[in-house]
Amino acid sequence: MNIQLYYAPITCALAPYITLTEAGAEFETIPLNFGQRQHMSPEYLAINPKHKVPMLVVDGTKLTENVAIQQWIARTFPKANLLPEDGWEELQAVSLVSWCSSGIHPFLRVINGPSKVCDISSTEENIRNHAAEHVYECFEIAENLLDGKEYFFNRFTAPDTNFYWCFRRAGQFNLNLSSFTNCQAHFDRMERRASVRKLLDFEERVQAEFSNAA
Ligand SMILES: N[C@@H](CCC(=O)N[C@@H](CS)C(=O)NCC(=O)O)C(=O)O
Q1: Is the CB of 101 under 6 A from ligand 1?
Q2: What is residue 214's predicted lDDT score, i.e. its pLDDT?
Q3: How many C-beta neighbours within 10 Å does residue 23 have?
């Protein structure tokens, strides 16, 4: 089986990179340079008109959206136990991935670029603050879900990678995360995993290559 992951540093494509690594999958990563807008190039738009990452290509067949990609990885590599075995808990895990993708991520995107949703002058700070409030509300929910737990379920599973990305991205925007001690402990725990260390090394190398090429 030939697995390719379209990826860009810093983005939510790090989640499937981590789960593929946890699964012991052999895969090729194709990094896109967002700084040079490679995701908007005619070549990439021809294969992914959504101009987003992650995109998985399996034996030439494309799959987008973290929610679907994470489930494909879990199903394809069952020995890695990337989702809970219990059917109800499995759906709760899918629900968590979906919440990260559609409940938290869009607000992080707005913080990153308020002009994507409103181009009226002098509104940027106001939009950022409103989006940040929503992110804080979500992290409070995650804080409760993680109370007394190392991971969202009784061991590491796929949604841990999606939430790890959300919390990391919020930190990169200098949001005040100091009250979210369970989320921070989860983040630190994730960064101790070999799969995440591998991802961070890879990210650093790709970023160095991109800045050398600039
Ligand atoms: N709902 C998608 C969101 C993917 C997404 O927004 N990816 C961002 C990076 S974090 C992206 O590729 N943005 C480029 C763009 O929107 O042009 C998922 O969960 O896979």
Answers
A1: yes
A2: 75
A3: 22
- pLDDT tens by residue, 108-136: 999 999 999 999 999 999 999 999 999 99
CA distance linking residue 189 with residue 187, whole number of Å: 5
- Which DSSP symbol is given to 61? E
Q: Which run of H or of E encompasses 202?
A: helix 194-213
The answer on 175 and 123 residing in a single domain is yes
Supply the CATH number for residue 8's domain.
Answer: 3.40.30.10
| Ligand 1 atom at shortest distance from the alpha carbon of 34 | 14
Task: Report d(CA 183, CA 181) in Å as an integer.
Answer: 5
Distance 53 CA to ligand 1 centre (A): 5
Q: Quick check: CB of 39 below 6 Å from ligand 1?
A: yes
CB of 12 within 6 A of ligand 1: the answer is yes
Q: Is the pTM of this model over 0.70?
A: yes
Residues 98 and 155 occupy one common structural domain: yes
CATH number at residue 133: 1.20.1050.10
- At residue 203, the pLDDT reads 98
What integer is the mean pLDDT of 141-160?
98
Cα 50 versus chain centre, distance: 17
The per-residue pLDDT for 213 is 83
Together in a domain, 93 and 180? yes
Supply the range of the domain harboring residue 169.
87-193
Tell me the C-alpha distance between 1 and 94, whole Å: 25
Q: Are residues 184 and 96 in the same domain?
A: yes
